[in-house]
Amino acid sequence: DTGVSQDPRHKITKRGQNVTFRCDPISEHNRLYWYRQTLGQGPEFLTYFQNEAQLEKSRLLSDRFSAERPKGSFSTLEIQRTEQGDSAMYLCASSLARTEAFFGQGTRLTVV
Amino acid sequence: QQQVKQSPQSLIVQKGGISIINCAYENTAFDYFPWYQQFPGKGPALLIAIRPDVSEKKEGRFTISFNKSAKQFSLHIMDSQPGDSATYFCAASISNSGYALNFGKGTSLLVTP
């Protein structure tokens, strides 16, 4: 499968715990995006990488959130001290410059 | 603040009918307007996209109509099929700021047999 891969698909965690999600983009894609989608809403942009450089961050990305893309390949999104409001689907997408973005299946996070 | 407003929230269409979903935006810097289809438990998948230098784009049963002066664009699904039942999102982005997508809230489409 050469699409965008996200791991895990589902994560249940207790409030206050840290969680980390991984995204493997389509191999030749230099752009990588993270979005958050809550039930009944459209995806909301969180952050964007071009190669290994994080070029844009939404104000939705509080200081409890951190994203990395070492070596411009896979990316991780970490949420520290999770809160119930963090429960959502976290989507990763990748693209080449000026082309369409392909989305992964997402990681559904439930904070209990 | 929702940068792209989408309507209706839900839509029921009979098989063979035309489904129409509308979106409006305010930011005139937007220059890329895609539509995504999402099935439950899946990530969004690109259906069709348009840039503001054209007023209409057609791909199979899907057509985007774009009105730059009104800052509106719409998706038409011709000959709607039960397999088209999904949630549809319009989006807009600015090409020189990385193409980060601003999504509408989505339209849940149900096509009845």
3D architecture notes:
- The complex is a heterodimer of chains A (112) and B (113).
- Chain A has 112 residues and is mainly beta.
- Chain A is 0% helix and 50% strand.
- Chain A has no helices and eleven strands.
- In chain A, strands 2, 4, 5, 6, 9, 10 and 11 form a seven-stranded mixed sheet that branches. Chain A has a four-stranded antiparallel sheet with strand order 1-3-8-7, with no helix packed on it.
- In chain A, a hairpin with a 2-residue loop joins strand 5 and strand 6 (53-57).
- Chain A is globular, with a radius of gyration of 13 Å.
- The N and C termini of chain A lie far apart (33 Å).
- Chain B is globular, with a radius of gyration of 13 Å.
- The interface between A and B is medium-sized, with 26 and 23 residues.
Keywords:
heterodimer; A: 112 residues; mainly beta; four-stranded antiparallel sheet; 50% strand; B: 113 residues; six-stranded mixed sheet; five-stranded antiparallel sheet
User: Helix and strand succession of chain A?
Assistant: EEEEEEEEEEE
For the secondary structure, the number of strands of chain A is: 11
Low-pLDDT ranges of chain A = none
**Beginning-to-end CA distance, first to last residue of chain B:** 38 Å
- Sequence stretches where pLDDT stays below 50 over 5 or more residues of chain B: none
